Amino acid sequence: MTLPRLLVVDDHLMLRQALVELLCQAGFDIVGEAADGADAVALAKQLEPDVVLMDLRMPVLGGLDATRLIKDACPAIQVVLLTAFDGPALEQQAEEAGCFAFLVKGGSPGDLRLALHQAVAARRALLSRGSPSVDA
Amino acid sequence: MTAEAAGQVPPGEAGFQLLADELPDVIIVAFDPELMMWAATGGGLRGHGWTAEDFVGRELPRIAGSSQAEAVEACARAALGGLCTELEMNGYEETRRLWSITFVPLADAAGVVSGGMALCRDITEQRRAEELLRASQHQLAVAQRIAEVGSWDWDLATDELAMSDELCRIFGLAPGSKVAMGPVVELLIHPADLERVKGELARMRSDPAPFRFEHRIVRTDGTVRTVMARGEGVVGEDGQVERFIGTEQDITERRRADAERRRLLHRVYEAQEGQDRRLAADLHDGHVQSLAAIGFKLEQARLRLGASGSPEVDELLWQVTKDLSAEVTSLRRTIGRLRPLVLVEDGLEAALREEAKSACNRAALVSCEVTSELDGRLDPVVETALFRVAQQALANVVDHAGATHALVAIECSAKGVTLRVSDDGCGFDPDHVQVLADIAHFGLIAMRERVEALGGRFLVVTAPGDGTVVEAKLPLTDPIVRWEP
């Protein structure tokens, strides 16, 4: 079984680096990093990670819009939104955009790892079913 | 000229006595061609403690002091010449008293002037009353001018409008102008207020109830003023409204000051919101991210230590990560209060629903329902103001009310939007929160100022044990832009 492949997207360099190091340590393969939504969409299409760990508010293109574009282009790629904001309305928007999970920054790192593993499992389950709707 | 020609000849002594009886406050003396008084009568004699003997047999000019004797004689001689004259003079013995004396010719049976008559009336009290009235009228005029209040009296039958000088000045008319209500309304009422004022006047014709409404006028020089009209009807014996008496107060400067105050408050709130936005952005983009990153690094350190590390260090790192997580959560809540993202992106209703949910989580509320008639977004300034009022009102529900049910309602009309936050909690005695600290504590001043800064109305209805209703009504149009004097 290959390592879970992650694309980490956040415009805050220190946070992104901390995430990358932690998730490497936790057994994830960080296939790419992006600092805005537009780069995230391009890298997702190019690298086809299992999961995109996506920030919400970023320059150029926000996390929700980037998620929609990624899900349109590659439906099997799962997006886990990690944001400093929360609230039912935002959670609903994240769900509508196609996010697999919605997590807040400052939450438990264990919860983050769990959500990422679940997302990877969901992606791989979709791929193994060979659904025609998933990305080739 | 004969006295008859002057129409002043009394019909003999009987008539003279009758005249005296008819005029009880008058002293009447008759004098002959030598100006010798031969009769004196009238109720006025008794009133002053005099008798006829005090007059009869004396020369008429001697009823006056030396300085006025000449004038009296001249008038008496004029009467003998058939003329009627009048003279005002001070009393002889009581110089403070003022007398009015009318000299008339006295004719014999043939109609030939054979003497004269002096009708003396003590007008001291009348003059004093007239002076008091004049002083009072002057005082009223000065008070009206200082207060910029003019008064009017409208006769509904004739449509005649009697206006005080100050009202004429307010309207830009010449003092003492005589006009009818109809033309005044057409001439002076601001076109934008004309229909409303006409409606009020039509209502007044059948309803004498006290009224109070604000309107604008266009003065004859073209300047626009804002006035407050007040008044009430006078009902006749037949039950119909006969007249209306009222005032018009020039409140232009007050309205200007209100508008300026609102404008400044508005700027204060804008600045405050801007500052909150910047602070929220700084906290979000800097501190929250950095603290979250530190949390991830601590977790990374914990993972690296793994099984090789001591359980105590692992426990410590886990605890520090947990504490840090709690701090970040608290910081995120602060950011949410400073700049509610949901309000900015999804509007008032969504923001209120989140605030209501948050209130439920923080208090022992069974329910906190939100109802809304909103259809689309409002002006961001209005949305922010109403949200801040609701936020404070719900904070009061959570912290002070001990309520089980709360309701946040938004109602819309063509004129504006109303936010109402009500609860079934303990309520409070509004009189007791007149203490400044308490008012500030409940945020009532801040809520009221916030609403009034936008030209709205703020209301709190509460009583101990009866729950609390906080209501904010805001116009949909920006009153600062709309207002004109």
CATH architecture of the largest domain in chain B: 2-Layer Sandwich
The strand order across the widest sheet of chain B is 8-7-6-11-10-9
- Main sheet makeup of chain A: 5 strands, parallel
C-alpha geometry of chain A:
globular
CATH class descriptor name of the largest domain in chain B:
Alpha Beta
Oligomer state of the chains in this structure: heterodimer
Q: Within the largest sheet of chain A, what's the order of strands?
A: 2-1-3-4-5
- Total of helices of chain A: 5
Class per helix and strand makeup of chain A: alpha/beta
Class derived from helix and strand content of chain B? alpha+beta
Please state the average pLDDT score of chain B.
84
Through-space gap between termini of chain A: 20 Å
- What overall geometry of chain B do the principal axes of the alpha carbons give? rod-shaped
Radius of gyration of chain A: 13 Å
Report on the structure:
The complex is a heterodimer of chains A (136) and B (485). Chain A is of the alpha/beta class and 136 residues long. Chain A is 49% helix and 18% strand. Chain A has helices at residues 13-25, 37-47, 63-73, 88-97, 109-129, and strands at residues 5-9, 29-34, 51-54, 78-83, 101-104. A five-stranded parallel β-sheet of chain A has the order 2-1-3-4-5, with helices on both faces. In chain A, helix 3 (63-73) links the parallel strand 3 and strand 4 (78-83). In chain A, helix 2 (37-47) runs parallel beside helix 3. The radius of gyration of chain B is 42 Å and the shape is rod-shaped. Chain B is built from 16 helices and 16 strands. Chain B has a six-stranded antiparallel β-sheet, with helices on both faces. Chain B is an alpha+beta fold and 485 residues long. Residues 1-11 and 478-485 of chain B have low confidence and may be disordered. Chains A and B meet through helix 1 and helix 4 of A and helix 9, helix 10, helix 11 and helix 12 of B.
